[in-house]
Amino acid sequence: MSQENNRPTMTTHGATELGTAETYGPTRRAFHLAVIYVLGAIIGLAMAIPTALYLLIPPKPRGRTGWIDAGDISQLTPGQPVEVSFQESRLDGWKLSTEKKTAWVVKEPDNKIVAFGPLCTHLACPYHWEASEDKFLCPCHGSEFSIDGKVVAGPAPRPLDRYVTKIENNRLQLGELKRSIPA
Q1: Is the four-CA dihedral 87, 67, 123, 148 of positive or negative sign?
Q2: Lower Cβ count inside 10 Å, N or C end of the chain?
Q3: Shortest CA distance to 173 belongs to which of 91, 94, 105?
Q4: Angle in degrees, CA 182, 102, 159, rounded to 5
Q5: In CATH, what class is 63-178?
Q6: Can you tell me the distance from the alpha carbon of 114 to that of 172, in angstroms, rounded to the nearest whole number?
Q7: Residue 70: Cβ-neighbour burial (10 angstroms; 0-12, 13-18, 19+)
Q8: What is the DSSP letter of 78?
Q9: pLDDT of 87-125, one tens digit each?
Q10: Considering only CA atoms, which of 123, 154, 112 is closest in space to residue 136?
């Protein structure tokens, strides 16, 4: 057999012919390409579905988890502010975080309970109760507040902010901190 017989020859229709063996059907290369395309599509979907869910479905709204237990009120003395500490849990999107917070709680002579936010309304500095002067003092800029939260002196533009309060089973429950209105 000469080498001339092993060469592909052209037929009248433009197709090549290698002896008598014809190659039809899928090749190994076509199979590998199909596998690569299918795997690429699966990986693309695996990345696209969470992304679409993140962009299209809004997260849970930020907010508090409800009323916060701030302690027993039976120990409070009328007219004597007490700083109470409590833990506040809040849901921020999908993350639940717990923060330590404080409030100044005052039991009034008529047994009504008032809870003030811990920051001065001037520049949000922490203030304290000065028993000798019978008022709240902010050491940063000299703001002074009476026991009912009203501005007595200094640059503070409005009274102290107040928590919404309720009493359940002789325990103080704190709600939302409401911004006070300038007097």
Answers
A1: negative
A2: N
A3: 105
A4: 10
A5: mainly beta
A6: 10
A7: buried
A8: B
A9: 888 777 778 888 899 999 999 888 899 999 999 999 999
A10: 154
| CB neighbour burial string for 144-170, b if at least 16 within 10 angstroms, e if fewer | bbebebebeebebeebbbbbebeeeee
Q: In which region does residue 12 sit, left (phi positive, over 0), alpha (psi from -120 to 50) or beta (all else)?
A: alpha
pTM of the predicted protein model: 0.64
Query: Is residue 6 packed enough to be buried (19+ CB in 10 Å), middle (13-18) or exposed (0-12)?
Result: exposed
Cα 95 to Cα 50: distance, rounded to the nearest angstrom: 17
Any idea where the domains of the chain sit in the sequence? 3-56, 63-178
Torsion of CA 90, 112, 136, 175, to 10 degrees: 10
Q: Are the beta carbons of 165 and 174 closer than 8 angstroms? A: yes
